[in-house]
Amino acid sequence: ITEATEYALDQFVLRGGRLVAFVDPYAYFDQQPGPMPGMGGGGTSSTLPRLFKAWGVTMDPGKVIADTVFASGGGQRYTPTVLSLNRTAFNRDDIVTSQIESLLYAFGGAFEVKPADGLAVTELVKSSPTSMRVDNVVATVSGEAATKGFKPEGKSLPLALRLQGRFKTAFAEGVPKGETPAAKGTTPKPAAAAPQLRESAKDNAVVLVADVDMLNDGAAVDVQEIFGRRIVVPSNGNLAFAQGLIEQLAAGDELISLRSRQAAFRPLSVVREMEAQAQQQYFGKIQALEAELQKTTEKMQAIQKARGAAAKGAQILSAEEQAEIENFRKTVVVARRELKELRRNLRQDSESLVFWTKVANIALMPLLVALAGLGVALARRRRQAAAA
Questions:
Q1: Cα separation, 258 vs 62, whole angstroms
Q2: Residue in 125, 200, 204 with CA at minimum distance from that of residue 164
Q3: Most-buried pick from 11, 71, 236, 269 (CB within 10 A)?
Q4: How far apart are the first and last CA of the chain?
Q5: Assign residue 227 a region: left if phi > 0, alpha if psi is -120 to 50, beta otherwise?
Q6: Segment 122-179, tens digit of pLDDT
């Protein structure tokens, strides 16, 4: 975004204008043209660097958020950077998010906030503590490779937030240098700028969301063709969330409190959290094995390289050196086998956890009712026998 556009937004907010800004480190649905035909160039990114700095907000435009609690898919489609957020991620005390049940947050970023003087921050949506920021180049990696080297940051990060208070200009030095586009064949003239504001006259509010993809049809709705008519059905709370933000800022809390929206989807949030805790027990072991495997492979390659150089010099490796190479090869085979076994156990434990949780939720209550019925029937039979 140009400085002139940022300056226009800056002055808009200082004049009392309400701003909802969707930014994104990796806009998946806004693909850049690839270097060759048929090859994608990756998603674009967007941010507000001058405004964020003035407001005390940072968002790394080169990193997306990965979260094992809210990760989407399973098996080879397991993608921790496509978050299926549920009610545990939302601020239940804020009217905009109090009735939202689910959001699809794909390849989005995360904020860090130390609000500037005069501003207060309200987190609307946040990640789980079992999350970390990963480079954009691995944003779309899925399956086992997606958790390779995963190290949770151990804290929740805001994904959407609201800043409230007295805003100060991000352009203390004045209007950015620039000219208005001139008509063809005329001489460019300097822009006729209004007097610059340094601070808002009264309290204002700005909402920031670190994902643009959530507004795209591919992430927000299901489109169906029924009898030749195009039917669009919301698939989650993405559009309700965006509309709620706009209504709240445009009309105030009183109106939006009467127009809350609620999705019917009820995710197994407890299962997700338990599954993430089970995964954490394996992450350390997997990373240690991967490090050992890498170290052993490098040593073996170094010895083989030396062996190749020795062969050119008509020298023969000693029996000890040959035995060391064989030991390294065996170590690599064992490490790979253990790594494969660990990942299989992790997948089995996760599937078992989900299965038994579903059994407890689905079968336990009917079983208790059946046992209670048998108990009542036996008690009646005993009373009838005693009466006879």
A1: 39
A2: 204
A3: 71
A4: 91
A5: left
A6: 999 999 998 999 999 888 888 777 777 788 888 999 999 999 999 999 999 888 886 4
